[in-house]
Amino acid sequence: MSLVALSKISHSFGIQTIFQNMSFSLEANSRIGLVGKNGSGKTTIFNLITQQLQPESGNVHLAKNAKIAYLTQEPQLNNNQTLEQSVLESRSDYVKYSAQLRAAEELLSQQNTAENLQKYSQAREKFEFIDGYNFRTEMKLVLTSLNFPLSTWDRTIRNFSGGEKTRIQLAKILLQPFDLILLDEPTNHLDIEMIYWLENYLVNLGKPYMIISHDRLFLDKTVTKIAEIRGHALEWYKGNFSFYLQEREERRILQEKLANKQQKQADKLEEQIKQYRIWGRARDSEVMFKRAKELEKRLDKLEPVETIQKEKSLNLDFGKTRRSGNDVYVLEDLSFGWPDLVLAKNVNLQLNYQERIAVLGPNGCGKTTFLKLLNGELSPLSGLAKRGASLKIGYYDQMHLVLDNSLTIKETIWQLSPMATRGYVLGYLARFGFTGDQVDKSVQILSGGEKARLYLAKLIHEKPNFLILDEPTNHLDIDMISYLEAALEDFAGTIIFVSHDRYFIEKIATKKWIFRKHTIEETEKKLVDLFFQKKKKTKNNNSLRKAPKSNNPTNPIVLKKLHDKIEKMERSLKEDKSALAHLQAKFADPATFKDEKLVLQINTQIKELQGEIVAASKELDRLETEYLELSLV
Description:
Largest sheet: 6 strands, mixed
Number of strands: 18
Helix content: 40-55%
Radius of gyration: 31 Å
Number of helices: 19
Mean pLDDT: 86
């Protein structure tokens, strides 16, 4: 049974048609990535599913009692609540039953009567039914993973930044009960380590979700289907994002071949029709005219093959620029930040001509402040920041503050070259996707994606030889990011940038500068080694394969038996997880749904296996803790 079904949906905004006769459903095993150009209607689909928006025609059906969690890009939080109060709000049942349990405990401690014991037993049973004892642990895990340690839980929401509020909203969404989760750009405002965590969380979630994201690696790791908005409807691809790109191109080529074949057939029919008419006139033959008519009917019945138009690439070429010196920046014993908050100290690094540096670190560590220092907006607290010769800096501010809201798109570029012709300005803007009446739109009313494109147009027009880019992929759709990547790869100058887009980082960066141990270190390691392998190493260190040395060791035979039991349970757990993945994969086969008994049987097996995996994981944790304690005796 579908959790959500949209049937023959049509919707428009003003004269712009968004969807026309669109139908699709979301099932219990759905893990879908929703992609499309900025403005194509991705968020509109989410608003239709949650019924925050009513379609002009068509129906939206939700399964009875289905709970949908929806992460929007605009968090709605109560500024007067503390972080803990705000997050607990997502579990009203926990708040209710934990209060009842505390009251019953208090009553029992005052009067140990049979009646009070029964009340306590009932309250505890209700609390256990909602898995209340595990919720605090889960809450701590989620908040800590999103960089909210216990020390921040009593801070009021108004004292958090916009990015932090978005992460608080994400925590609330993940912790509330739901049957389906909708995530609109969930990786925005997450640092790389958080993105790795969220990927793993979703993969192991065991519940359906639909994700809007421009993070290609994130979609590769988390989804099993891609839905692309094209032609006012959805085109479906069975696989992750990388498969979708390959399959889309293969479909385009196939459709093109079919269209060419049909066109040849149509041309041949038209030629035959023309010939029969010539013969009919020449011979005054009704038979020839009749054959011509028959062929015309065949021609009319040919269903036109709809081709997938190859996207027209945008030209973001930076062109030739004046060369800088070899030493772009030299940092010696550099400290920066503020007198009461030093962000990094003892920084000794050198940035050379044509290097491409990705600046990495957790949110709030000072990455943007560091870029502003290189741009000359801030001064070091101590040490030296030597700027090289012949530098012309192009600074990309993620807030786009340098754009003038009083100007139009056309005026923004024209003021950079007042003597240029109108034709030159319009031609230049067309390279960035601004055509027709769009060029007369006011900057003030532009969307985030349009402002990002205009900012890039302005930046490239200034012909810099040193680019300082702060989150340049924010607000860009996936196609636009790929155009930017191509332009940066061909750029002849030097680049230093901050980004949380891992694909973008690995494609562009030759080196990485990472905030670590109160300074900045240089590395050429891949992100997976810097972040994911670090966690893996920590996990392996805690896996308790070898007993640590101790002055008074426990009997080694006891330890060996416990060690063997842990290894046996781990093998069993691995087999159970593999079996679970095999069962879940059966839902990817449409043939499975033709047999209702088979679907019920697989669902039952999945639930049983999930229960066994949870129980086994808890037991494994207990055994490993016991092993550690005995090893240290």
